[in-house]
Task: structure prediction
Amino acid sequence: MEREREELMNVVRRSLSPDAQVEVPVSWEAYEEVKDILEGDNEKYPRLWYDSARSMAIVVAPPSDLHGSMASELASRIRDEVTRIHGLHADMTAGLSTRSDIESSRPTRHGLTTRAWDTALVYTEGDRRTIMIAIEVGVSQSYTSLRAAISWWMCGFGCRLGLGLAMSISEGPRRNRRRQTQHYLSFEEAEATVTELEDELRNQRAQFPYGPLVINGVTWFGQVQNVVLETYRAPGDDVPRETILEPTNSFNIVNEGQFVGVSVTPNLQEVVLRDCIPDHIIRIHGIEAIPVNFFHREWFERQFGNAMIENAVNRIWRNIRIGQAD
Result:
């Protein structure tokens, strides 16, 4: 176990790229030891999860700005569309909210599994909170790990619906990713420069909605190769928690930097009111099957574009230093 613990600690202490998830085969005992060390550090990241079905620790790096933005926007968009459905009483939708970044552990046939969801749409009644829709976003993350994350919430917590948004982004040639540190004498000088660069990024994004965004040969946001949006449902109430589900629907939204989701229906062919509000609240009104029409191209491109710019600007700021260079 000592060797397992050392291998896991080496990965945990490594500098990881945003959105990275590194899997390390270790025992539960080794995982617990390293988890205790991390909790003693009082740092939010890296996170450490455990998949008991595969005896695998998962080291989770901080999410990128794009990751966090799209996860929260999806949940908020669905919640807002529900509240706009004609004829719904305000007290029916008052319990709807979104929650992010919550870690939970549950036993499986193989032991204890620990994970955290990106974002969820939840419904609260008194002191009872029900997870209705679990949302996972993967940025250049393996498809297998994304499916495993969604399946965990579907099979382990009884969510009505799972949404997975998988994105693949090419950052271009390595030479275009060498972002040299820029030094400025004052914060005001740096801020003025970043404002000019942000204007240039927005101009480029108007021409290339899915990138790349390049200034002076440096790539601040790569080209979006693919975006796929999928829905997941558990086939029953007694599905083992470690089951890996297949998507019920899969939609190509972006391919090779071009929007291709023109035929995607606003409710993804299946998202309805009963996915968002518990049955006993809406069944007496006979409105369970009302579609929740949250997905529209204009909304998606606006939110995605804003997230791209935010990601690029944050990268610029991370390469800025105030004061004289040494």
Notes: The mean pLDDT is 88. The longest helix spans residues 297-318. The two ends are 45 Å apart (CA to CA).
